[in-house]
Amino acid sequence: MRFTIGKTKIRITFFFAAGMALFALWRGGAVVLCVLSAVFVHECTHLLCLYLCKAVPAELTVGLFGMRLSDEMTRLLPYRKELLCTVSAPLVNFVFSLLLLPLLRCGEVVQTLFAVHFSLGFFNLLPLRCLDGGRSLLCFLHSVCPPPKSEHLMNAIEWIFFLLFFLFLGIYFFTVRFEPTALVFLFYLSFLLFFRK
Question: Measured between alpha carbons, how far is residue 197 from residues 13, 29, 50, 138 in Å?
Fold first, then answer.
C-alpha cells in the first residue's frame, strides 16, 4: 500500500499488514485498533518533527519491525535536532497515556489504549540503536565524545542491556511463570540487536 503525505511517500509493507492480521486473530480486533492508533500517533510525531527541522524524508516504509526512512537527508541533522526528533514520539505516547489515566474506569478499550501507548513509549526508549532510545543515546554520545569511541560505548551498552534483560526473563520464566508474550518480546529484541544495526 502506498500513499503520499506532503513530500513524503509512505509505503506500508505486506508483512506489517500480515502481522497485524495475525495479531488480530490472537488478541482481537479492538486491541489491533488500539495498537494501530498508537503506532500512527508515534510515527506521525517523528514525521512532524522531521518536517519542522526541515529534513523532509523522500520515502518512509512501515514494516513488521518498525519504520525506516530511505532518505539520507535526515542524517545531516545536527545531533541535538536528531535527538529531539527521536525522543519526541515516545514522549507523545507517554502524554497520551497520562491523558487516558483519569479515564481508565470507562472501559476495557480505554485501558488497552492506555497500556499500548505506555508500552510503546517505554519500549521505544530501550537502549538499542534501532529504537528511539538507542538512537537518542547515540546522538548524545556523539555530541560528547568522538564517533569511534561513542560507537564502542553504544555497542557495550546494547550488549549489557540485552544480557541483563535475557537474564531477567530467564529468572522470571523459571521462578514465576512462563509468559509467551515476553518470549515474543525477547525474540523481537534479539532480531533488532542482531539484524538491524
Answer: 20, 33, 22, 12
Give pLDDT tens digits for 37-76: 888 888 889 888 888 888 777 777 777 656 677 655 555 6
The residues near 89 (Cβ < 8 Å, ≥ 6 apart) are 42, 43, 45, 46, 49, 124, 132
SS3 of 68, please? strand
Backbone angles phi, psi at 65, to 5 degrees: -105, 25
Which candidate, 48, 24, 49, places its Cα nearest to that of 36?
A: 24
Sorted by where each begins, the domain ranges of the chain are 1-125, 126-197
pTM: predicted TM-score of the whole model, two decimal places: 0.78
Read off the pLDDT of residues 117-140 as tens digits, 9 standing for 90 and up. 998 899 889 888 878 898 899 888
DSSP-derived letter for residue 63 is: E
d(CA 171, CA 76): 43
The answer to whether residues 83 and 134 touch, using CB atoms and an 8 Å cutoff, is: no
Return d(Cα 109, Cα 41) in angstroms, integer: 17
**Residue 134 CB neighbour total at 10 angstroms:** 22
